[in-house]
Amino acid sequence: MRVIIVGAGTVGTQLARHLTREKNEVSLIESNEEHARHASNRLDCLVINNEGNSRAVLEEAGIARADALICVTSSDEINMIICGIAAESNPALIKIARVKNDDYFSLKRSGSFSNMKNTFTQDAKLLGIDHFVHPNIEASQSALNAIDHNAAGDILSFAGTDYELGSIEVARESPFDGLALKDYRTLVPGNTLVTLVEREDECILPSGSTVLKSGDRVFILAQEEDMDKLFEMGNKTERPFHTKGEGRTRLRRKEKVMRKIGIVGGGQLGALIADGLFSRGAEEQSEKSKSLLSVFKGFIKKNNRKIFIIEQDYALCKELSAQFPHAVVLNEDISDENFVVEEQLNDLDLIVTATGNQELNIITALYLKSRGVKRAIVMVANDGYARIAKRLGIDVVIPVKSVIVDSILSNLMSGGVRGIHRLGNGAISIFEIEIDAASPLAEKPITAFHISEGALLMLVERGKSAFIPHGDYIFSSGDKIVIITKKDSEKEMEKYFGVRL
Question: What does pTM read for this prediction?
């Protein structure tokens, strides 16, 4: 695959690193000389130090024969203009633009938001752009997914199934501490599967000889009703459990439901999270709420919740009070200890820190947890801070730029790829793939599937049923499968499934 990336910031360089590692041909355009030099020294790709909104520069990068163009500069307008220029040179090109201004999303009201890929896809393309990626929508969607699971940890749900992938930290002297996976079935009956073990900076696709240790983070695939027992065995006793509702999964808990939620930071990200939590009906929305802040209408319908929004900027607090009349909007400094005590924030069920300062987000969450707040979701910019925050005991950490990278990669993939999730700082990928009749493995047994670097077929959805496949499984056209792989395995995935990665 030939890909041109414009913008060598964190997102652009992460994308270039991932794509070059998978043997794709990448050209990276960056106008800042220092950033371009930094990228050139660290990436195995063509780096052009020039402006991307130039037809001559795009031609130098190979726009005529490129398969995809990704524009992730700091300017929405530049990103959109570059896509427009490129559309004339190569109409078949996949064009993706990162856009932060919600006004651009309202230019074409025929568009719709995709829950699976978290991106705005227009029926009528604006400037020929195939996909818009909005950082705050991506991040708020991730936060709402975490809240939907009561911030119990890193949990992935797979649409159409009642399976989820939960991460459990093995506590000392818990039943998992010292457990050899060859004995796992004697301890955990039922349809569950250990898929990944994170041990310090190492990611392990486990085998029967793998022995779990205290401090390991273990990713287990299980049906929702079985996850409670697994969390208890890993010594995490407050895991929520599920019941099936009409059309989607609803959450409840053995103990108290998360009713009292605080959001620190009233900017666009915090407002999107609040909007998702309230899920107001269309009749309650003002004209302003019918733009970007209405994209989560109906996403999570929770009653009897008390939402606190803490923001230092007085003018913004006035806007938030009008936007969310049922919220308690506090114009205060969250770092003020007296304020925390006076407002009784120490008895919050959940705190979500979503300011633009990632260090403040981490410190605030840790402080409030030390005062009695039960769970914390922290928004950070990148994986480095995410690893630090997890080690400090934060329940859920969302690295915004990595979420954007995952979304862009999902849009790049062709064929039957429905989604991609990266774990372990990008060392592990989870693919959702739909098998079609043209797939090389269609109607072949699982024994025909073997990846040298390591992979595990985790889950199959066939019709209305989902199951963990065993040795007698045969790939069938129409199956939707979930596979976890190590890095450098994607080309082999392309060979087996006939998809372009």
Answer: 0.77
